[in-house]
Design a protein that fits this description.
heterodimer; A: about 110 residues; mainly beta; 6-stranded mixed β-sheet; B: about 120 residues; 7-stranded mixed β-sheet; 4-stranded antiparallel β-sheet
């Protein structure tokens, strides 16, 4: 079964607002990654957070990791129309396998 | 030029036919992966290879086989295609790091396969 599960499945917000997506996983991980997918295209890596890190920033992205709750969140600040996409978390376990969640579809309204 | 390429990009075939999807990469990565994506199910790992002599089954390998012809090439075959193999297929690569893992994956553009 999939290790990562994103929440919510779909999210619509107004341009300029912040978007928050959550991810839960089941077993111990080495790191957790977030990817973006524009419709029908390949996934693009956004950010990686290691298991010994709690928070990481990259531009308008902020990722947190709570290993005690086996959860992560991705915050996109000041959203733009170009942020409309699906977002996936991917957990890399101790066997080095990367397992993807089902994704959150984000729609930025003009 | 794209670092990870997939051919064909689109394919329509009939039930029972043998199909091969090809993936090539110029990133020099050791690790290559095949995923399928279905609406609402995210990406599921079919097979992965950590080097030319290492092939491993993923979550959903039944009905599929792979060949790692070289470091840069990893092909996926459907021996006898069936309609529920209709999906978007992605190849991905990652580098190998010693010590603490850091395996960002780089994806190809995908192959849309339809089995009638």
């Amino acid at each position: 079964s999939q290790q990562g599960e994103e929440d919510p499945q779909a999210l619509s917000i107004q341009e300029g607002e912040n978007a928050t997506m959550n991810c839960s996983y089941k077993t111990s991980i080495n790191n957790l990654q977030w990817y973006r997918q524009n419709s029908g295209r390949g996934l693009v890596h956004l950010i990686l957070i290691r298991s010994n890190e709690r928070e990481k920033h990259s531009g308008r992205l902020r990722v947190t990791l709570d290993t005690s709750k086996k959860s992560s969140s991705l915050l996109i600040t000041a959203s733009r129309a170009a942020d409309t996409a699906s977002y996936f978390c991917a957990s890399q376990n101790r066997d080095d396998k990367i397992i993807f969640g089902k994704g959150t579809r984000l729609h930025i309204l003009p | 030029d794209a670092d990870v390429t997939q051919t064909p990009r689109n394919r329509i075939t009939k039930t029972g036919k043998r199909i091969m999807l090809e993936c090539s990469q110029t990133k020099g990565h050791d690790r290559m992966y095949w995923y399928r994506q279905d609406p609402g199910l995210g990406l599921r790992l079919i097979y992965y290879s950590f080097d030319v002599k290492d092939i491993n089954k993923g979550e959903i390998s039944d009905g599929y086989s792979v060949s790692r012809q070289a470091q840069a090439k990893f092909s996926l075959s459907l021996e006898s295609a069936i309609p529920n193999q209709t999906a978007l297929y992605f190849c991905a690569t990652s580098d190998r790091h010693r010590g603490f893992s850091y395996n960002e994956q780089f994806f190809g553009p995908g192959t849309r396969l339809t089995v009638l």
